[in-house]
């Protein structure tokens, strides 16, 4: 009879262990997903700010005004966003490292295999990807969207400067 109780006790302990390990893996995986989402949000902010910065600089140059205050304010905001992106990337890669350790470490690796948890990849950004920004210019005459390299509007032919 005592053997039955010991068997039940071992089964309960194993079940609790499986639940704890599986929940820990799920929590670490959610951290990875959240950190990647934060990077995307900050990158979107950056992509929204850069055209504004370019437009303010161009409009101030056209009017022969200094435009120092709005330009400086946008540059500071851009610097804050860049810092937030850097921090978010570090958090993401740290989360990936902790998750991968949990997936690879024995005996957690047994549970990870059973529940199909795979190692996650680190976020690696090439220099080209880091600085790839698309800025479009809008013609003040007809409103046509033009690439930043355009000198003349593709819609009406007027100068974009």
What Rg is obtained from the alpha carbons, in whole angstroms? 27 Å
Count the domains: 2
Low-confidence residue ranges:
none
Give the spatial strand order of the biggest sheet.
Answer: 1-2
The H/E string reads HHHHEE
Structural class: mainly alpha
Mean pLDDT: 84
* Percent in strands: under 5%
Largest sheet report? 2 strands, antiparallel
What oligomeric assembly is this protein in?
A: single chain
Overall shape: it is rod-shaped
State the helicity in percent bands. Answer: 55-70%
Overall number of strands: 2
SS element count, helices: 4
Overview of this protein structure:
By secondary structure, the protein is mainly alpha-helical. The protein has two domains: 2-124; 127-161, no CATH class. The protein is 68% helix and 4% strand. It is built from four helices and two strands; from the N terminus they run ααααββ. It has helices spanning 2-62, 68-104, 108-114, 127-130; strands at 136-138, 145-147. The chain has a two-stranded antiparallel ribbon with strand order 1-2. β1 and β2 (145-147) form a beta hairpin. α1 (2-62) runs antiparallel to α2. The longest helix has 61 residues, at 2-62. The protein is rod-shaped and about 95 Å long. The model has no long low-confidence stretch (mean pLDDT 84).
């Amino acid at each position: 009879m005592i053997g039955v109780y010991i068997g039940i006790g071992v089964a309960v302990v194993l079940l609790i262990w499986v639940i704890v390990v599986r929940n820990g893996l799920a929590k670490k995986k959610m951290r990875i997903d959240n950190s990647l989402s934060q990077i995307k949000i900050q990158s979107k902010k950056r992509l929204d700010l850069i055209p504004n910065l370019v437009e303010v600089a161009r409009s101030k140059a056209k009017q022969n005004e200094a435009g120092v205050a709005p330009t400086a304010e946008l540059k500071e905001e851009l610097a804050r966003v860049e810092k937030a992106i850097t921090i978010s990337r570090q958090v993401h890669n740290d989360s990936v490292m902790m998750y991968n350790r949990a997936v690879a470490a024995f005996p957690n690796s047994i549970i990870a295999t059973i529940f199909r948890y795979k190692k996650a990849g680190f976020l690696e950004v090439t220099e080209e990807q880091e600085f790839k920004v698309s800025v479009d210019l809008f013609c003040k005459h007809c409103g046509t969207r033009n690439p930043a390299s355009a000198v003349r509007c593709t819609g009406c032919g007027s100068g974009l400067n």
